[in-house]
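Record Amino acid/amide ABC transporter substrate-binding protein (HAAT family), 390 aa.
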Amino acid sequence: MKQLVLAAAAAIVMGTAAYCETIKVGVVGPFSGPFALQGKNFKAGIDAYMATNGAQIGDNRVEVIYRDLPAADPAKSKALAQELVVKEKVQYLAGFYFTPDAMAVTPILKQANTPLVIMNAATSAIVTKSPLVVRTSFTLWQTSMPIAKVAFDKGIRKVISVVSDYGPGVDAENAFRAGFEKQGGEIVEAIRMPLATNDFSPIMQRIKDSGAEGVFAFLPSGPPTLGFVKSYSENGLKGAGIQLFATGDLTQESDLPALGDAALGILTTYHYSVSHDSPENKAFVAAAGKALGNPAELTFPAVGAYDGMHVIYKMIEATGGKQDAEKAVEAVKGLSWMSPRGPVSIDPESRHITENIYLREVAKDADGKYINKEIQVFERQGDPGLAATK
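=>
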């Protein structure tokens, strides 16, 4: 009798061990090279979420596997995603800082039976390329249209547009133009710069010569934005009263100390500020700052990754850990929660995040620290760019 009981107990233990599976999440991002800070923030957001919520969902353990993609490289991005799916057997793909890299992965999702959670890449069209894509970051249409209204309301009537020449830059240019011209403003010139541009002096001269009262700019956060803002100040545009309007990519918090007083007064619209005043954000900043090791390096990709993990956890719960991409995505359509950035939800039709967009001004807080101070809220913004892709 005792042997039968022991055998039954062993069977239960073995059955439990067999049932307890590891759910792997493959994250692709820039963990080395010039954009390594953004990859570091992906990991900080993920680590912060897992530190707060644990690595166990029911009987399943979550493991994150990272792959480094230092710069935009669609062919390598696809190869890394295929390696993660085939060799590592990940059930979920996530991350992706640059749009071309995310676009390259969408054709493999159906066959791989794998959802893709976009934690940064910001071209509207990505979600239209596969029904298995969900976005927890933002789009350039979403962040660029509000700043067009801000510029017009400030009395600016002539603007020159300057953007990086790739998907998000084109989206930003088109979004600002649509918003500004609708109100009666004029785009006097539209400049598209190669993504690798690092000498902005000729661009600044063209801005001066254009007769514009303001300049709208988009470049991907990192070394290019730091160089652009410095060049704007050093070439006398700020002193000449040509106001700079931009998406928040230009003034990420980790760059503000290096920009110093040159950045004061710059107006941007964005989905997240480290200084956002809410209990959820204070807890997030503490956890993500601890994960980074240096809280001063905390910037926006961390919140896209944090919320991306929230969505993936909900997918795992809904599927009971089984690999079923369609069921996983269906489960998060209409999902809403309180993010560190404010109230958010996943639009059931587009699978894109609905969120507040904030007008921010670079300022100093009471301690003399440079911050993006939120001064206005555009509530529950969807993605107007989706209509433009149809």
